[in-house]
Amino acid sequence: MKRNIIAIVATALMGMTAFSAVAQTNVSLDYGVKAGLNLSSMILSDDFNVLETEVKPGADFGGFMRINLHENFAIQPELEFYYRGTGIKAEAGPVSLENKINQWGMQIPVYALGKVELGKGQFYGGVGPYFGVGFSAKTDDIEFGIFKKDPIDLYEEYNDKSALQRWDVGIACQLGYEFANGIQINAGYKYGFINQVDDLKSTVNDVASKFGTSLKDDSYKANASVFTIGMGYRF
After folding, report:
1. pTM score, whole prediction
2. Which domain holds residue 123?
3. Looking at residue 162, which CATH number applies to its domain?
């Protein structure tokens, strides 16, 4: 307990020292908003031999803070809320089933941003980590012939596991151009490092067994892959 208190005090003192040092430099802060279209899918490992994902459109919106450390360099944390629609398709012989995963969530990317004057505006590009959490993930209605089932909640837990993982951590990058009036256009990409499959294998195998096949091994993985294009405004 005593060690924890000392560590907390030391961390606070270091934070206050760092803040004091930054306050004495020429650091400036800018704020802005952004919104756009996302095109999301999941990159599946080969053992999903009957399942594939398809890119579907979604949307995201949020805001950012730009910490200008130099005229050509900044740190830019962002807060984004998103809707993603990921298509899923299972094929085995003549039988084909299609559906979609509808996800709502939030993510926080932090970019190391380079910027340079170009024309009357500014070109910028950045890369950095992101942290994300899903609020909701449900399929569309499931229909196969006369069989119909309500949407499945993929975050609902059974025996402490859910079909999909709620959390994600990955790498994000973006390129953009800011006009003299503060309006921005941008494009970006995010790739998730965390396997999004939590307890999906047993469900997939139950379905696949009806077609006389199954997953090959235990190394099944599904990683988030998202392209974005959008607009923003820096105040």
Report:
1. 0.76
2. 27-234
3. 2.40.160.20
